[in-house]
Amino acid sequence: MSPAEGDPAGAARSRRAFIKRALLAGGAFGARGALAPLHAEALTPQPPRIRSFDHVAIPGRRMEEMVAFYRALGMTVRERGSGYSIHFGDQKINLHAPSAWERDSFTLRAPSAVPPCGDFCWVFEGARDELVALLHRADAPIEAEGERDGGRGGGGLRGQSIYTRDPDGNLLEFIRYT
Question: Which end of the chain has fewer CB atoms surrounding its CB within 10 Å, N or C?
Fold first, then answer.
């Protein structure tokens, strides 16, 4: 019986020591526990990755109409400080009221941005007819539609898009992947 077999803590130390020696020798364990050579990129620390948007912010002018419009699209709208936040999924759009973005002291924004300055694309999960009905309920006329390259699959997937505008004139695209 080896010294590690009678001592669980010793067995764990022995396994860690073996793994450390194997890694230092340039190997790694595959799915079946076999030692395989490591590639250089596996040893290089990976930088943090940007995963998704959390939110974007735009100046608004026609606040009451914007709130009603985005609610008609089924989004949650919350009043906040000097504007509103529009929520969908895990993302949001902060909508700054003119009383905020017209002040010279309001510097945490793009200084030349005035309504309309947004161009947003949402993924719509449903049939074209459902999207058209939703836009109709929100009084949002279709401006254009067609097949477009989307953001999914690293920009390699195509979808069917329908474009409209919100009350401030921001361009809104709704893409459906099939």
Answer: N
| Number of domains the chain is built from | 2
- Both tokens of residue 85? 């936040």
Using only C-alpha atoms, what is the Rg of the chain? 26
Q: Which of 112, 133, 114, 115 is nearest to 124 (CA)?
A: 133
Please list, residue by residue across 113-142, b when 16 or more beta carbons sit within 10 angstroms of its beta carbon and e when fewer do: eebbebebbeebeeeeeebeebbeebebee
Residues 79 and 135 placed together within one structural domain of the fold: yes
Tens of pLDDT, residue by residue over 82-130, are: 899 999 999 999 999 999 999 999 998 888 899 999 999 999 999 999 9
Examine the domain organization and report whether 101 and 160 are in the same domain. yes
Q: Could you tell me the residue range of the domain that residue 74 belongs to?
A: 55-176
**Cα–Cα distance for residue pair 107/104, rounded to 1 Å:** 7
**Per-residue pLDDT tens for 41-67?**
567 777 888 777 889 999 999 999 999
